[in-house]
Amino acid sequence: MIIVGRNGIRKLGLLKVLSGIYRPDKCRMVNGARKTSLLTLQAGFDVNLKGRDNVRLNGMLLGYKKVYILSKLAEIAEFSELEAFFHAPIKTSSTGMRVRLGLATASF
């Protein structure tokens, strides 16, 4: 799941409800999806490896099978909007780019 929106529309509030920090006022939330901490999205990244290699490594740390990860590489590169940087070491990428790559990996 990715939450995108302009400033002030309560994205953080929604995330707090989804994570269980806040209780919803007038709805019921059912979450059957796998949970991934935002803090661990880059936990397996090696700055000397290329983006695609970090996706493979991080995906396996998240529990995905290698065959599945390899079949999703192009989609992950496109989803993260980092196709131009996907074959470069991530030490050349900004922190925001690394977060997008980690989020894209966890989303598939």
Automatic annotation (TrEMBL):
InterPro entries attached to this UniProt entry: Bact_Polysacc_Export_ATP-bd (IPR050683), P-loop_NTPase (IPR027417)
Highest taxon, organism lineage: Bacteria
Alphabetical list of SUPFAM superfamilies matching this protein: P-loop containing nucleoside triphosphate hydrolases
Protein name: Uncharacterized protein
Species, as recorded: Candidatus Litorirhabdus singularis
